Amino acid sequence: MQRSVSAELTLTVVDRARLAFMVAVAGGATRERLHLTVNEAPVEAAELTDAGGSRIHVVEAGPGTVSLSYAATVDGHHPSPARSDVELLEYLRPSRYCESDRLGPTAAAEFAGLEGAPLLDAVSSWVGTRLAYVPGSSQPTDGAVRTLLARQGVCRDYAHLVVALLRALDVPARLAAVYAPGLDPMDFHAVAEAYIEDAWQVVDATTLAPRSTLLRISTGRDAADTAFLSSYGGLVSLESVEVTAVADELPDDDVTTLVELR
């Protein structure tokens, strides 16, 4: 499978700020280009890699207009990163947007006796049928509990609720930001991953794109670790975002089968 992705971001920076972008494909690509400008002048970004393999491009910029252009093509599939016992413990804990400690009674009542692939199928279906996908319906600070009460959200809200329910059942779970060929409308996408059968398996309760085509950008406890843009020090306004993701095939996705993100 060949997948081609791109991201175009335009920002207005009022005061000098430190910008951290996470838009690059984790693990690199067959072909790749990242171009940053400040007031139309090219600048070089420092590339960092976090413990989960996410690539972060950092630049000091402003005041003025900052533009980022990224494009990558990936041929075939990357092997999944090796897991560690430390990360399995980390992804069992409650986090800012995945309050698994508050959802324990709900998880126990709804999914008692299930484990492995049937559990992932049940949680995905339960979340998918109880939430309505409504663009713009959630706030950046909403977590899994708020999402469940509101009964609506966008992809990150679905993923947060899946992660929180699984952690409440002692299943390591985490959030991944991805490029998603087949997604409509096109944007950055968020899915959950659960560690069962000695591998990280994708759970996407939105069912908006085939899981086998997804391309990892970043991985973390929740959206706090996987934002495509973070800014520090100055006032920053995001003026525009344009994302594309295509694959040379869009297979059907049987939600009852296990799929790894590669």
Outline the fold blueprint.
Elements (H helix, E strand, L loop, with lengths): L1 E12 L3 E5 L9 E8 L2 E3 L2 E4 L5 E7 L2 E12 L9 H6 L13 H8 L4 H15 L1 E2 L10 H7 L1 E2 L1 H14 L4 E7 L9 E8 L2 E5 L11 E6 L8 E4 L3 E12 L15
Parallel strand pairs: 8-9
Antiparallel strand pairs: 1-7, 1-15, 2-6, 2-14, 3-4, 3-7, 5-6, 10-11, 10-13, 11-12
Helix pairs in contact: 3-5, 4-5
Report on this model:
The structure is a single chain. The protein has 262 residues and is α+β, with helices and mostly antiparallel strands. It has helices at residues 85-90, 104-111, 116-130, 144-150, 155-168; strands spanning 2-13, 17-21, 31-38, 41-43, 46-49, 55-61, 64-75, 132-133, 152-153, 173-179, 189-196, 199-203, 215-220, 229-232, 236-247. The chain has a domain at 85-177 and 191-224: Roll (C8orf32 fold). β3 and β4 form a beta hairpin. α3 packs across α5 and α4 crosses α5 (155-168). The chain starts with a strand and ends in a 15-residue tail after the last strand. The mean pLDDT is 94.
